[in-house]
Fold this protein.
Amino acid sequence: MVFAPKIASRIAAKDAEMPRPAHANGSALARDRILEAVNALPPLPAVALRVMQVAQDPKSSAAQLALVVSADPALSARMLRVANSAAYRRSREVTSVQEALVVLGFVQARNIAISTAITGAYPADTLHVLFRIDAFWRHSLAVAFRASDLAGRTRRLDVPSAFTAGVLHNIGRMAMFHADPAGLDQAIAEAIRSGRSIEEVEREQLGYDHAELGGLLAEKWKLPADICAAIGQHHQEAGEGQPSLASVVAEADRFCVSHGILPGYVVPGAPGVVVVPDGEVAQVLKQVDTLMASITQEPSGVHLVP
Ligand SMILES: [Fe+2]
């Protein structure tokens, strides 16, 4: 089975009848597997949670954000580096987080702080072949910007919450990766081979998908209920009624996937074919590129399928 090696071996000790499809005999085994995968992911750093709390509190100020950022040396250094980069050319060097926030502006500083705190917790490593963490975060950030835009258009939904939910919407897949890197690579290979989505393959092999897993993780981290719901429901079909945080994140995810900004893998295009994004896609990718350059200080590149 696709996700066999690590998760199955741990569960085998508890369940002598393994292997068997998780969905074939009720929810107990599937639940065990979900909890195993949840526990495999290193916890979100405290600074990430504090940045999210401050960023989402409408009463919070730039001074409070500066206080939270200042408590984390790596995040402070990143903020100062961005504020002193060519993009924010200054006549003199920025030497304090407070000043960096003024230079960057609250929204940009908030986005950098959230993105750095979350993506920095789960950096790239060499355990994978098809699953690409850089592509994974690029997709997540694209969904974050698109969801923020959609939330802003409603004039009712909280934009910072939409950004955070967008960055975190696929965190369940990151948990699967940490639980079983080779299994995720195999699931991606199967999805590409069969032309199905990875979540279809996940459900077939495990009896649950990364959205369900991510929702549980978000609850475990005690994130706000609407963010937990947005993460857990981001593959639900569009429905009637008022937009919610969950519906804008789901819509943003569909938008990104349909335009080839794939969640953690790249489907090679036809040789010699160069896809040039335009309109709203180009706008989202520009925002992502700018932010990725701030976070990594490296050009992010763009991977699209034709
Ligand atoms: Fe997803």
Summary: The chain has a mean pLDDT of 81.
